[in-house]
Design a protein that fits this description.
This protein has 275 residues and is of the alpha/beta class. It contains ten helices and ten strands. The N terminus is likely disordered. The structure holds phosphoenolpyruvate. It is an enzyme of class 5 (isomerase).
Length: 275
């Protein structure tokens, strides 16, 4: 994550989930993203392919603004845990970040305690944590805020301030995720919740460090609504599911993020000159 004065790069994180089915398809999609990311100046592409593909793809990771990561890690470090892959093993395979607490993992039984353990082990392995939080339902009384606060507090329990530089949070309201989602959240929904999340994060790591923790939006992001979240919603980036498997859509999202970054940099230079 790069900073230029008050400006920061947009993180465009791609969660490929259990797709694509074949290694050569993953390579083709990846090569397309590599080509699209050659001239990046204001954004970074983070790709979380299925775990078996990470190692092969990292050979081709030639750009600083392109990161590879995993979609989950174990709550154990090693031993008799059939099927589990530790954060340290993922790091060795080439993962630079790991998604933790995704709602699809929580739906399979992952508890808040599991999420906290995974966060701790990933940070210990020096992998950036992309922590997902979000309510299942949006009520009219603001109860959903308590759900989000509790997920953030429990996930970050015991996390030192010094680790905040390896922490990214994605606000992913469960009701907005996936093809059966009623609708994406709005940029205004995101903006208010992201401010709230930073406030809760500050309880753990202090206000200064919390301000530097990027908060992304995730949930039915498309090439048509991405700009709204980045611009009006002031999102520090996006966590993109289905749409991240479509190279042409990703090219549009990348071009939009870059154009916004350039416009903001220009505004900030103008502001500096007139001060
Ligand atoms: C996700 O599950 O992280 C996600 C954002 O999915 P989608 O974009 O497909 O809603």
């Amino acid at each position: 994550m790069r900073y230029t004065g008050m400006m920061r790069d947009s993180i465009l994180a791609c969660n490929w989930k259990m797709n694509p089915g074949r290694r050569h398809e993953a390579e083709t999609l990846y090569q397309g993203l590599v080509a699209a990311s050659k001239a990046l100046k204001a954004s970074e592409i983070w790709i979380a392919p299925p775990t078996p593909f990470i190692d092969g793809l990292r050979e081709r990771r030639i750009f600083k603004r392109l990161s590879l990561g995993a979609q989950d890690c174990s709550r154990f470090t090693m031993g008799a845990h059939t099927g589990e892959v530790s954060a340290a093993m993922l790091k060795e395979a080439g993962a630079q970040f790991v998604i933790v607490g995704h709602s699809e993992r929580r739906a399979m039984g992952e508890s808040d305690t599991d999420v906290n353990t995974k966060v701790q082990y990933a940070l210990k392995a020096r992998i950036t944590v992309l922590l997902c939080v979000g309510e299942k339902l949006r009520d009219g009384d603001g109860e959903y805020l308590a759900v989000i606060a509790s997920q953030v507090r429990s996930a970050l329990m015991g996390v030192p301030k010094s680790a905040s530089c390896r922490l990214v949070i994605a606000y992913e309201p469960v009701w907005a995720i996936g093809e059966h989602a009623a609708a994406p959240a709005t940029p205004e929904d995101f903006r208010s919740v992201s401010i709230y999340i930073k406030k809760v994060v500050s309880e753990q790591v202090g206000a200064g460090a919390a301000l530097s923790v990027p908060v992304l939006y995730g949930g039915s992001v498309s090439k048509d609504n991405a700009m709204g979240f980045l611009d009006e919603g002031h999102a520090d980036g996006l966590l993109i599911g289905r749409e991240s498997l479509k190279l042409s859509a990703m090219k549009t999202i990348i071009a939009d993020a870059e154009a916004l970054g350039r416009a903001r940099a220009q505004r900030s230079r103008k502001h500096e000159r007139t001060r």
